[in-house]
Amino acid sequence: xxxxxxxxxxxxxxxxxxxxxxxxxxxxxxxxxxxxxxxxxxxxxxxxxxxxxxxxxxxxxxxxxxxxxxxxxxxxxxxxxxxxxxxxxxxxxxxxxxxxxxxxxxxxxxxxxxxxxxxxxxxxxxxxxxxxxxxxxxxxxxxxxxxxxxxxxxxxxxxxxxxxxxxxxxxxxxxxxxxxxxxxxxxxxxxxxxxxxxxxxxxxxxxxxxxxxxxxxxxxxxxxxxxxxxxxxxxxxxxxxxxxxxxxxxxxxxxxxxxxxxxxxxxxxxxxxxxxxxxxxxxxxxxxxxxxxxxxxxxxxxxxxxxxxxxxxx
Amino acid sequence: xxxxxxxxxxxxxxxxxxxxxxxxxxxxxxxxxxxxxxxxxxxxxxxxxxxxxxxxxxxxxxxxxxxxxxxxxxxxxxxxxxxxxxxxxxxxxxxxxxxxxxxxxxxxxxxxxxxxxxxxxxxxxxxxxxxxxxxxxxxxxxxxxxxxxxxxxxxxxxxxxxxxxxxxxxxxxxxxxxxxxxxxxxxxxxxxxxxxxxxxxxxxxxxxxxxxxxxxxxxxxxxxxxxxxxxxxxxxxxxxxxxxxxxxxxxxxxxxxxxxxxxxxxxxxxxxxxxxxxxxxxxxxxxxxxxxxxxxxxxxxxxxxxxxxxxxxxxxxxxxxxxxxxxxxxxxxxxxxxxxxxxxxxxxxxxxxxxxxxxxxxxxxxxxxxxxxxxxxxxxxxxxxxxxxxxxxxxxxxxxxxxxxxxxxxxxxxxxxxxxxxxxxxxxxxxxxxxxxxxxxxxxxxxxxxxxxxxxxxxxxxxxxxxxxxxxxxxxxxxxxxxxxxxxxxxxxxxxxxxxxxxxxxxxxxxxxxxxxxxxxxxxxxxxxxxxxxxxxxxxxxxxxxxxxxxxxxxxxxxxxxxxxxxxx
Lengths: 314, 569
What we know:
The complex is a heterodimer. By secondary structure, chain A is of the alpha+beta class. Chain A is built from seven helices and 14 strands. In chain A, 18% of the residues lie in helices and 19% in strands. In chain A, the strands form five sheets. In chain A, strands 2-1-5-3-4 form a five-stranded mixed sheet, with helices on both faces. Chain B has four domains: 11-177, 3-Layer(aba) Sandwich (Dimethylsulfoxide Reductase, domain 2); 185-229 and 294-389, Rossmann fold (3-Layer(aba) Sandwich); 230-281; 427-537, Barwin-like endoglucanases, CATH 2.40.40.20. Helix content of chain B is 31%, strand content 16%. In chain B, a hairpin with a 3-residue loop joins strand 18 (474-479) and strand 19 (483-490). In chain B, helix 4 runs antiparallel to helix 7 and helix 13 packs across helix 15. Chains A and B meet through strand 12, strand 13 and helix 7 of A and helix 3 and strand 13 of B.
């Protein structure tokens, strides 16, 4: 009597993706199938440790018999589905998503965007010159339901100065696409700290602490599990932010090594991101059973004791 | 337990449990990612019970918080056991088939009526009964504990009391049910597994087992003496008695982490020779005759560590150490060489291969396999298969031969903390960790944490009001061993009579001047969790409580009135 969980093998369903017949396990998502076929589907708000939010719509595919395009990250496979990942409708939709996001948000640190823009012929500049960036705190003071008249000569943006209100990480919301992954990671899906949520409505929506207080006055416990899931670099460890700001960013001098956290006996895996023998970021492999990509403040930021100039011998 | 020194379950089983008891554990702060697994279970509908004298943030997630008086865990466990027996909730098949000593145990808990349990522990009878019944009835139940159980003069008995509960209900040896100590350091488990304890050889093999000794003697070409060594507390006793004159400390800061630090420093001072090997110049290292600068084991060298679910995982070198710092392995090997006993290769994988050749429970864990599987839980005797994620499944085997030795119940008796409360020392001080700090702060003190507030003496608001002290006011905290000064912090999670401090800032506030060097005779763990203290105001009118009497037990403390918090030395 060991009472081990019994796993019933899932049913298999048959579907067609871009003309290729494929079988998949019930419960899989269309995105899983596309990726298993080697079909590159762009994603931004999708996170492998989070429930799909369907926020960004860049992963949409066309489904025969379906009136609208469907987000592949969350749509379950069904028997007999006929899926098109590169139809005109799909390409057009992805192009527009990339243009709207690219015109209003700084995607310079978002992996894959440049190649996607090229593939889909997206021109984020076509809505005109970007409007002047908001002053610090200006967007946070916007009142829900009140909107100024639109400026026909400029593209609206979320540009604003980065928020630097604590020594550990920077919130650069000019890079935020509102994918909500940070909110979910901080909230009930992982950390259960609930320090941040969405505030405002429509284009004024932003991620904020309660009453927009500084992080140091918020419920934040600096686990950085929000940083871990952010796809656009809107949330960065201060060490990485400073390295980039100092124009000293040199991927060719960087390496990543995975080891085990020295604090406590849980055994979280730490991936140390190192440039010139200095750690600038700590992440955790999302596919590992101990931490599922999450860490606490000590694991995420507690590496400083091995860094110069704190430690020297002789 | 039952011959294996490790938690019985995997983290995934905690997530899949129906009921979780965290006993003497503030996992939300001390083991935050383990607590993610607990939260996963809670989100799924599992019941969470938290037993802690403090109403911690962990307790705030519980369906029910039980707040016993410090040091009454055995009373609580025995009362629960009596409820389970009286209510007919004992797992009869398991108790009859796989355990021994039930009758004597049942007789021993007979006096622990709910009324007596409530009177001794301070936990309402209905709460004790609810937990006992819920635990016994749960399909899958996890009993997890931390230093709130072990840092007592009777820590081993505390653990045995919890094991009794699991045996009564059959909550061990099957998927989802288990007994799990949450380890405080990343290789507490691995250190013990590798024989870095006084009575074991690598593979947690008993030094008194002649077959084991012979295998090691053959491999090492050197006889193994069948003598247990000393644990940490015994070493300090031996230092006091001048039996132990030389000490080699690796990666430990006993000058600041031993209970009753004045006593510990005095004993360290008696040594003829002190060698400290560490990654920075700790307080202990500053006392040493020789300091050996070492690499940081977690990021400047290669090897393995073992976590609380018995998962052996690789640590890897990510950064170059500072000039002059050497790998622990290289230092030990060179020392051995100079002593005329070369140890062979210092390559971490070669050493691991030697472990595999001598430790049956590690035999199946090659480096490539550890890499491919994200670590492997012991036991892993075979390279082509994995064992179940839980221990002691044999206890449920139908065949008595396969079932093996019976798991014994232990008769354990309530024994209150050594440091008694009285009129002179009326408050109970307990200690623990905060989320962003770690032990004596050697590592965690280096990063700028926005959460860090420095050391405080945390008091219940009612106690602070009675003492006439306010939040932020620096007070003197006095125990029978010493005194320190620290600012007051009010914590509504503390009941009247209970105070709390950490040991994260010993350079500013040396909390261990207060703690008592009363150790568990089996484990050698000191009673950090229970000191008797009083609070003295530094300014204003003297408190009404008498302070001058009974000089016999009071250690001399020179009254001073510094304006900043600092240790009285």
